[in-house]
Task: inverse folding
């Protein structure tokens, strides 16, 4: 007896629908995570960073993935969260908010920054050459995942997921075409067995 199955042998029971919906949701979540953490930053020329300290709580708690997009110096204003080098030439970066933009008598710009959770501004002003970019968007908790994955692993993951999705789409396309070309008489004969 084939109760709960259609003519093609697919499960049409409530449990079959639940399994199908859950699998599609998991696939969509995986694709969204990969897009937010790897694909979109790469396409946009942005850089993902992981927040390691609590200086930007509650906006960016530790473990948050922030995606930083390069921004021209004149476009930066008070209120922008920026990622910058602690010292020019030093690769170590920090993300704090600009609280004041200053220009000296020669017209050179500096930024006074402060962490949202810090009681006072940072000791040294930031010069435009130190700025890596402005925070474009953030994803809570995904920074931990970002920290575990190296650059080569990211490239491999994107390639595997892309090829897998193309293969799955091809499989679904071929299956749908096969179902359309199946003779009607054969379907009714199959349903009766």
Result:
């Amino acid at each position: 007896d084939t109760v709960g199955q259609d003519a093609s042998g697919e499960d049409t029971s409530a449990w079959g629908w639940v399994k199908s919906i859950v699998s599609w949701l998991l696939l969509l979540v995986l694709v969204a995570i990969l897009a937010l953490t790897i694909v979109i930053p790469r396409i946009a020329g942005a850089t993902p960073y992981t927040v390691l300290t609590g200086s930007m709580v509650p906006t960016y708690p530790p473990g948050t993935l922030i995606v930083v997009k390069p921004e021209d110096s004149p476009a930066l204003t008070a209120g922008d969260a920026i990622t910058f080098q602690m010292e020019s030439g030093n690769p170590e970066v920090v993300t704090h908010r600009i609280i004041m933009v200053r220009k000296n008598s020669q017209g050179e710009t500096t930024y006074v920054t402060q962490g949202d959770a810090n009681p006072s501004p940072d000791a040294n002003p930031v010069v435009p050459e130190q700025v890596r970019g402005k925070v474009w968007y953030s994803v809570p908790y995904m920074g931990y995942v970002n920290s575990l994955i190296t650059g080569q692993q990211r490239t491999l993951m994107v390639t595997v997921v892309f090829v897998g999705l193309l293969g799955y789409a091809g499989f679904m396309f071929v299956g749908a075409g096969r179902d359309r070309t199946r003779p009607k008489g054969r379907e009714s004969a199959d349903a009766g067995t």
The first helix runs from residue 14 to 44. The CA atoms of residues 112 and 124 lie 8 Å apart.
